[in-house]
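Revision sheet: structure tokens.
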Amino acid sequence: MLRLEPTGNASTEKDERLTELLARAFAAREQLLQMDQSETDALPVEKLRHIQRVARISYLDPTIIRSILDGSHASHLGARDLWRMGDMPLFWAEQHKALHISTN
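Predicted:
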């Protein structure tokens, strides 16, 4: 099982909803990677799309993930923002733009 832990000492409070969403995202990605074609075909389309949507969040820029885990993420960023993001940009710089996060 994948375990996500923050690095260093966070001086700000963690957003538990964001942390939980990240954990679910990595679990969903692992679930998809472990499935074979027959298992994928057997899933209802809605369930498969849900798993895929959650798994996409696991492909966030590692600096964004780290900032969420240590509580130093942008204050405007919430779990709802990540969940509602239709198409997650592949490039990390584009993710920062889409989420209105400065790249400092």
